[in-house]
Amino acid sequence: MTLYGAGLIFALLFLEVIYVLVAGKVWRGESGLDGDVPPAWWFLGDATWRGVARAYIATGPFVLAFFAGALVAEVSDADDAGMAISACALLLGVLVHGSIVLFNRPKALVPPHLRDEPGALAERRARRHRAVS
Description:
By secondary structure, this protein is an all-alpha fold. The chain is about 70% helix and about 0% strand.
C-alpha cells in the first residue's frame, strides 16, 4: 500500500465519523443547516439552500461510496472495480441529490421534519405565481 492509499483510508474514516455525527443532528432537526436563511457565501438562492439541507442525509453515503471505490482502485489490483464503484456512486448520488433538492423526493431519505417542504422547483414556481398575481 502506498502513502496515498493510507492517506485515503484515513480521510475516508475521518469523513465517515464527521458524517455520522452531523447526520444525526440533521435528522433530528438540531443543526444550523436547517435554517431558512443561507449563509452569506451561498449564491444559489434560498430554495436551493433548503434543498441541499434536505439532501444532506441522502448524499453522504454516496460520497463515502465514491471514496471507497477510489480506495479499492488504489490499494488493490481491481482498478476497474474501484472505478466502477466510484462512477456508480457518483451517478446515483447526483440523481438522488438532485431529486431531493428539486422535488423533495423520495420522502424516506428526507429528515422527518423537512418532508412537508416543497422542492426547490415548486417553491420557485409558487414565488413566481405570487409575483405575477
